[in-house]
Known about the structure:
CATH superfamily of the largest domain: Winged helix-like DNA-binding domain superfamily/Winged helix DNA-binding domain
Distance between the termini: 41 Å
Structural class: mainly alpha
Order of helices and strands: HHEHHEEHH
Number of helices: 6
CATH topology of the largest domain: Arc Repressor Mutant, subunit A
Largest sheet: 3 strands, antiparallel
Mean pLDDT: 93
Amino acid sequence: MDDANASRSAAGAALTRLVLESFRLNARVLAAGDRITREFGTTTARWSLLSQLELAGEARTVAQVARALGLKRQGIQRLADALHVEGLLEFLPNPGHARAMLVSPTASGRRLLERLNRRQAQWANRLGVDLEARALDRAAAGLLALRTVLEADEVRLRRSRLRAQAA
Length: 167
């Protein structure tokens, strides 16, 4: 064990290696997304917002989209505003909240998303030739488990801070 890992348990050291590798992977995935989206005159961030709405299957508030993506509401609001100006996203009245509008892709936004998803499928299939589906499924399950633990830890920390502020 090197000095950097001296105070880490075996699981802590493994988690650190995974996190560091995820940083490198994230950079590569974003670069690949940018190559895919560039052809269509958009960005990976905008594609992500449209994709999240597609996954939801219905209009969502900006805050709901931000939570689902693990991002700040303000950043998603800026993306939504830009997509709206481009005619790719529409704001709809929210019967559950007077101020928090719902966002939904327009027909143009759905067409763009279909084209992006087709290109992404080609990319995934090309890379998938060198990878095993079961290994990828196990990796995805491991990442989901880690994300679940991180989210639970965030909730614990938030509650702890609130208790400390109340005291």
